[in-house]
Design goal:
120 residues; mainly alpha; 3 helices; elongated
Length: 120
């Protein structure tokens, strides 16, 4: 909703909204990469499970799961820091609470996968 009386402020507001949406896309990319890393960890265990000694593929999978966890935390941190500096005007960004809940659930999932891998 561009106002003819304050076109400069309107353009600035719209640019800030675009930046907020770009921050969300970046967050999504970090999450996607973390999930792909977790999938590789599961695949490693599935493919190299019979490998002897059995702790080797489990250790490699654990390193990948830790990397996925770090990606989730980095995604949250970068999103949080960027969102603190920006104000939404017309764009509807995800709430910080939703993002924290998502990160907590993904973190619990990564922990659960790690536990299951070591129990196999």
């Amino acid at each position: 909703m561009v106002c003819k009386e304050h076109p400069v402020e309107d353009r600035t507001d719209l640019a800030e909204d675009r930046t907020i949406l770009a921050v969300e896309r970046t967050f999504s990319g970090w999450i996607r990469t973390g999930l792909a890393t977790a999938a590789v960890a599961i695949g490693m265990q599935a493919v190299f499970g019979p490998f002897q000694p059995t702790w080797v593929p489990k250790a490699v999978a654990t390193v990948l799961l830790l990397a996925a966890q770090l990606m989730f935390l980095f995604a949250w941190s970068a999103n949080h820091m960027s969102r603190r500096r920006l104000s939404s005007h017309t764009a509807r960004a995800q709430s910080g609470t939703r993002i924290v809940i998502l990160i907590l659930l993904l973190s619990a999932g990564i922990l659960g996968v790690g536990v299951v891998l070591w129990l196999l």
